[in-house]
Design a protein that fits this description.
It contains nine helices and no strands. It has 238 residues and is mainly α. Helix 5 runs antiparallel to helix 6. The protein is globular.
């Protein structure tokens, strides 16, 4: 239960901090945070919670990350569904708290509510194909960064920095295309409160990140670090 509680709080923090920066702060141009500020906020949420509770649960905060780690033999398959449930519940609770705060402003309209989308719901009106491809590629790359920075040959203690910076970079690249998901729980958690068709498009932001996680986890396991497993984590690389 400590693991699941850590995943709940970590995912809550990611959605509340990252999406909150978009809903609350980016709505005021005079603050000047823009896309770059939102991207940094998402990176900081992962970095801070990875240090705070990563030692308890592994600091996944993302169903795609949990799947990719299982594919790479870094995470037990039997724990996948419980982790997904904790992550999704944390994201939905964060979306609800954020909605309660944002709705306290006179004239508030949820609109997209920091949700993800393609076509008319894409910030740059990119197509479904473009949205799917960028989510797959960036999620795969994210998994490789996570697996590499936490491997037995990586410098110890720096993994949260690498992972947080990678998520910042991912957002800088893809906010104009999909508003950046790479995280199915994050997508669902705010889509439930949007007044657009974001909930009707959320399927893509489950399918594409999970597919990207399968690819990234597979690349790490079979190409970059064959034979790595929890059982031989302290052994030399083949």
């Amino acid at each position: 239960m400590r693991n699941l509680a850590a995943e709940f709080f970590g995912t809550f923090w990611l959605v509340f901090g990252g999406c909150g920066s978009a809903v609350l702060a980016a709505a005021f141009p005079e603050l000047g945070i823009g896309f770059a500020g939102v991207a940094l906020a998402f990176g900081l949420t992962v970095l801070t919670m990875a240090y705070a509770v990563g030692g308890i649960s592994g600091g996944h905060f993302n169903p795609a990350v949990s799947l990719g780690l299982a594919v790479a033999n870094r995470f037990a398959w039997k724990d996948l569904i419980p982790y997904w449930i904790a992550q999704v519940v944390g994201a939905i609770v964060a979306g609800g708290v954020l909605y309660c705060i944002a709705s306290g402003k006179p004239g508030f309209e949820p609109g997209g509510f920091a949700s993800n989308g393609y076509g008319d719901l894409s910030p740059g009106h990119y197509s479904l194909q473009s949205a799917a491809l960028i989510e797959i590629v960036l999620t795969a790359g994210f998994l490789i960064v996570i697996l590499g920075s936490t491997s037995r040959v990586a410098p110890p203690g720096f993994a949260p920095l690498a992972i947080g910076l990678a998520l910042t970079l991912i957002h800088l690249i893809s906010i104009p295309v999909t508003n950046t998901s790479v995280n199915p729980a994050r997508s669902l958690g705010v889509a439930l409160f949007a007044t657009t068709d974001a909930l009707g498009q959320v399927w893509l932001f489950w399918v594409a990140p999970l597919l990207g996680a399968l690819i990234g986890g597979g690349i790490w396991r079979f190409v970059l670090s064959p034979g790595e497993s929890p059982a031989n984590i302290g052994q030399p690389v083949d």
